[in-house]
Structure prediction request, 404 residues.
Amino acid sequence: MEKRFKTEEDARAYQKKLRKKANSEIIPVPSGKPHGHLRFTNLDNHYSFDAPKPIQVVADEIELADVDVGSGFHWETTKHRIYGGRLEYLVDDGGLITVVNELSLEDYLKGVVPSEMPPAFPYEALKAQAVAARVEAVSKIGLRHPYEPFDLCDDVHCQVYSGRSRQAEKTDMAVESTRGIFMIYKDHLAEAFYAGVCGGHTENNENVWLTDPQPYLRGILDKAGNKSLRTSLKDEKNLRKWIDSSPDVYCNARKGKVPKSVGYSKKYFRWQVEYSRSELERIIHDKTGEDFGHLVDLVPQKRGVSGRMIELEVVGTKDRFVISRELAIRQALAPRTLFSSCFYVKKKGGTRGLPKKFVLKGAGWGHGVGMCQVGAAVMAARGKKFDQILTHYYRGVFLKKLYN
Prediction:
């Protein structure tokens, strides 16, 4: 469904009304022609010239300073980035500079794979990542940025692309050795969502995005074979036991034979954050705009098959409201974004029904749909090939080479 509004304020008011029923995204539509001009300055001799139209720069390597990275997430920062090929500089309708890197799909993937998965990961995992990234890129063209002068952005919204800044021989080989290979389900291109650490169980796609259920994007236990949990993680008691345990699953870097390169993921497999009541009240108010008074409780209303929260009720002294969808929940409960929506809440201390502190104990990092990247690394370390990794996480797909 698409609905247009005159102002962003009107769009956000409508989005707020939809919160309980649907996940939505506000996409700016150009309201006029781009305005402004580009000025290029040589820092050596201070020579400058103005470019009234978009200009293309072609060079072996071009460095851009202060590129925004990870906007809204816990790794948010700015970095210098190096790009190859052709860069187009243009002014958007807001008077800001947009830089577009024009390159082939396979060269693009050489900048994506090492940005989305550490090059130190086992080679077969990198090959699986290359295939997944290729499928994701093609399936999102024309959908993510329909009104903008580029196909894909360089951040989490599409896929992280760092140009040549993180490019490595090992990841280049992973892209080249899988060139043209796509995942197919029945007679059409599959979608290849992936996330950092599933926490032991992946999630159904319809529980994260407002999309039709896909047979190859079912939540599964991140373990060898077709085993399933005997208990439902939708149940609060079962979910608490699951999070408090250390199950023997692929992405548990604390157990069994795992490569050293996944050691960083231990802090994501099981995690805990603690807030004072006033601190959490401020975060929720700033993120949602809701005036709910003092925070009394956070009550899970609905969970997915992985235990990830789909609906969370915020109970205050003045009002109560429901936050729907896992990303909105993660964004509402952290200064940037919570690792995962698979968590339970403990209240500590307080008087007169108002807790002193809130403790969130959770599992995993990311939305949990599709391939678990750390799980893929462990599978590869234990001898699994890239096609076995992909068919473990995307049940029912097959691989097909569509071009050489």
